[in-house]
Design brief:
The structure is a single chain. With 54 residues, the protein is of the alpha+beta class. The chain is built from one helix and three strands; from the N terminus they run ββαβ. It has a three-stranded antiparallel beta sheet with strand order 2-1-3, with no helix packed on it. The longest helix is centred in the middle third of the chain and has 10 residues. The chain is flat and about 45 Å long.
Length: 54
Amino acid sequence: MYQTDIWKTKSSRIYFGIFDSRMKAIDIAKYNGLYTSNAKVVIEEVTLNQFKEA
């Protein structure tokens, strides 16, 4: 999860952590006041514990 400006530029990203569920990430973002009129919170989902041979 990270916070960014309203235009979502990469240079404005502030990293806030890795969570095991979307709901926990949203709860933490709300608790810490990361949702504002000048900033957006972006939650990216990734697949964990996955093994692939090339």
